[in-house]
Structures are given as structure tokens and as C-alpha cells.
Amino acid sequence: MGRAAGQSRREEPGRAGRDPRGKLEFPLAPLALLARADEKAVEMLGIDLSGKRALVAGVADAGGFGFAIAKALAEAGARVCVASWPPAMGIFETMLKRGKFDDARRLSDGSLLEFERIYALDAAYDEMSDVPEDIRTNKRYAERGDFSIGGLARAWQSDFGDDSLDILVHSLANGPEVAKDLLDTSRKGYLAALSVSAYSLVSLVNRFGPLMRKRGSVLSLSYLASQQVIPGYGGGMSAAKAALECDTRYLSYQAGRRYDVRVNTISAGPCATRAASATGIIGEYIEHYAEHAPLQEKLTLDEVAYVAAFLSSPLANGITGTVVFVDKGFHAMGMSYG
Length: 338
What we know:
Helices cover 37% and strands 13% of the residues. It is an alpha/beta fold.
């Protein structure tokens, strides 16, 4: 039954209404939610990745961003596979089997993080035909089969079929000359940094996009040196991160239209990971951020991982082509007053 002309309608809490001029008003949240973020509110907006499958490329130990993100995705209910660099893969698998990572693997319910698959991946190569003979025959590589990006995609399709991937995380970077000033970086070192740290994202999306479910999420990891001068972050890595962020925008458009997936990147503040130690001054970065950021404390891997889980979830379906800063606000500063 319709309402008579002029009859008033009582708005339900949390629903949007229209004023007499027909303008859409902003929805109002229930007062209880505005008053406190209690357990019920958290449940209502909980990150639920149940039934989703993720691939985190770039996990070789339990102390990096990739592992932390894999764990956060699993906490939210996702099934997680990882891809690891062949020279580090043997040690990684051995440490897992011996229980050396059990503390890091422990989830909130007491169970241990389990990986559906562990794949070999050297993101410097799109196909095995690109691999130099000395690498192909190296004993750390030879037993790993096809460790190229194309090989990874084919192995994934063989294991899980089409329309089988919901979340793709690019946690890959390599700057062989990162400790050198840009001015002293060789062409070979510069191009190597761009190849593994930036172009590999393009290659992964090209090959995995057709295997992803609609509204899947692609996520990578960047750093503030893409936009501002960070002394000591050299070897072409600043350019590689700038390329990664630019490619994120272009891929969000092209992969969004072609595959209906989202593409974002997280610009994370410094953490004392094994990869970050290659700069030789990661400790100085961490202390500088903690002293000068708006939130004067050290960033944790979990804080980055939780944002990654959110961006990978349906709660972030409206976000793509975006660089999300997770750095305690350091990126916003032009000058610190202590």
C-alpha cells in the first residue's frame, strides 16, 4: 500500500533519506557505532575472505611483508599459496618442516598457517627461454622445473583451473645496486631493479588476469622513494617504485576493463626485513620515521598486512588504481618540528 500524499515516513537508523527538495542525504550510522567500536561493530564490518584463494609472490622467510600479508589473508579465511625465489626456497621449506617458523605461523585460533602450494618463481624471467644457461643449470634452480612467471601461471592453472584466483599479491623487489647512489648505478643494475621490482607486476597481471575471478584484487608494495628523495635508497630502486605506482594506475584501467579486477599498491614505511637490510641503513630509516612522523612510533609488519587484507576484500570493491600510504603519516610531512 502506498502512503497518502503528505504522509510522513519514519527513517530507519542507518538509512539514507531525501530532504523536501529531493536531495539525497548522507546515510547516518547508528549511534551505538558512532559511540564506540565494540565487538559487535567489528563483526558487522569484519574482513571475510572465506572461499577465496590467494597467491602471494615473494615469500622466502617469516620476517617479511609477504609472509605477514599471507598470514593476514589466512586469518580472514583465505586459502593461501606462495611463490618463492629458487635460491632461498630450499631453506624456506626446510625451516617450515622443522617448525622453525611455527611461532610466526600461529593464527589467532591457535592453528598454524598452512600454504596450499609453494611454487618456485624468479620474477626476472617471463619464460624459461629467457633464462641464461648458467642460471638454468645452477643446482639451486635445476630441480625447480619451470620457475618463470609464465611457468607459474601454467602450474597454477593445472592445479586449480580457470577462474580460480581471487587475490594476487606482488611482494617482489630486487635492486642489486641499491646501496649505490643513483649517480653511480650501472645501466645493468638500474634495468635489473626495474625488471624485477616493477615490470614483473605487469607480467603477472598479464598471465594471471585471465585466471582471476571478477572483482579480484591485485596488490603490490611500494615505498616513498618513488615520490621523494630518500638518501641511501639507490641503484634505480626509486625509479622502479615510481614505475610500479604508475603501472598500478594503468593496470587498474586496463585489467579493470579486461578482467574486472582491481589493482592497488601499498606504500609502506620502513620495517627491518631481510630485504630492507640490503640498503645498509634500514635502522636509520626506522628511527627517523618514528621521530618525525605524525604518529611517533615504529611501523609493524602486521599494520601493513591488515591494510593488505582490507584492500583484498569486498569491503574495498570501490578502490582501484590507488597508492595507499601505511607509514604512520610520514609521507604527509614537509618539515618536522620534533
